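Narrative of activities, Objective 1.

The group set out to show that a structural description can be obtained from nothing but a protein's sequence at a throughput compatible with the screening campaign. Below is one input-output pair from the validation batch, recorded exactly as produced.
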Amino acid sequence: MARVRKRIESRKDGSKNTYWTIDFIDNFGKRKIKGGFKTKVEAERELSKVMQEINNGIYVEIKKSLTFGELAENFIKYHAEIHCKPSTLCSYNTYLKNHVLPYFGNMKVLDIRFQILYRLKERFFSIAPELSSSCFDNHCQLHRLQTKLIFLFVHIL
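Output recorded for this entry:
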């Protein structure tokens, strides 16, 4: 059940502030409320967009304080355990535990930038210099694909 609601707030000086909110249930059955829309039309347009994303199964709520560790945990729980073979799941868990989480675990996802990935590349080559750059670049392409999968399949709580 989705709906648009009008909200009116009274200020201390006696004036009133009017804004619109949307209220809907997401893919996982959680009630979500988004607000701050100036007009009813704007709110209805956003609600229509969100409902279409929910119906197509691509709606994802982005939590700005989400750490990479939480994201990786959700990826394993909601995607890898369901869609991957046990050997692939084992590889993901090992790689995350030994290489990625020690470096990115407590970092906020929104703070991870391209330069930070290159620092990881330098650290990786200092540990295993026999690996070629092309091997790492191929792995980065795989990582980009996995990142897309994370945002498609993980519901950020």
